[in-house]
Amino acid sequence: MMSPGDTTRVDFGSLEEVIVNGMNGGAGEMSVRMFHDGRHRIIETRMPPGSSIGDHLQTTGDDVNFVVEGTGTAFCDGTEETLRPGTCHVCPIGSRHSIINTGSTDLVLWTVIVYEVEREGDARHPTDPEENRSIRQGISADELVER
Questions:
Q1: What are phi and psi of 107, to 5 degrees?
Q2: 23 vs 35, 51, 137, CA distance in Å?
Q3: How far apart (Å, rounded) are the C-alpha atoms in residues 83 and 32?
Q4: pLDDT at 147 over 60
Q5: 3 state SS of 61
Q6: 61/42 Cα distance (integer angstroms)
Q7: Among the listed residues 93, 77, 96, the one whose alpha carbon sits nearest the alpha carbon of residue 127
Q8: What percent of the chain is predicted at pLDDT more than 70?
């Protein structure tokens, strides 16, 4: 486990590639390379055209999906988001989401799972879909705590 001041380098090319069929009940197969050290989970997912990650409840932490290549659509708590290189789809813990490759080339995502850490005085992640929608619309955590 890392300590403050430690650094790590993730080289996806050196990680084992795993082929996953129908991830979370989705369509097709995709390749996944995952770095996981018990504290951090960083994943490269390569989704061929027409494949999808099925609708599922986000239970382990916030999913932060950065689009490296390709195009697609994400659905999070009923909100549709267009994915293209340089965009980031964030699905907070407690939300439901799915991702579909709608393009003609592979959709490549780098995903970081941000685990919830409880510390005295920290706000907990909301599990209400309306509150999660507020997070995606740019309302600060402080504003959520005041509600």
A1: -100, 120
A2: 18, 9, 27
A3: 19
A4: no
A5: coil
A6: 12
A7: 93
A8: 73
- What are the structure tokens assigned to 81, written together? 């988001």
Query: Is the sign of the CA dihedral 39, 140, 85, 83 positive or negative?
Result: positive
- The amino acid at residue 143 is E
At the top level of CATH, which class does the domain 12-116+123-146 belong to? mainly beta
The string of pLDDT tens digits covering residues 97-108 is: 999 999 999 999
**Mind listing the pLDDT tens digit for each residue in 102-131?**
999 999 999 998 876 554 444 444 444 444
Residues 30, 33, 35, CA angle at the centre, nearest 5°?
Answer: 150
> How far apart, in whole angstroms, are the C-alpha atoms of residue 102 and residue 120?
43
Distance CA 129, CA 109 (A): 24
Q: In which band, very low, low, confident or very high, does the pLDDT at 135 lie, cut at 50, 70 and 90?
A: very low
- Residue the block writes with tokens 């799915």: 98
% of the chain exceeding 90 in pLDDT: 51
Q: Which of 12, 91, 104 is CA-nearest to residue 50?
A: 104
DSSP single-letter state for residue 141: H
Cβ–Cβ under 8 Å, residues 89 and 74? yes
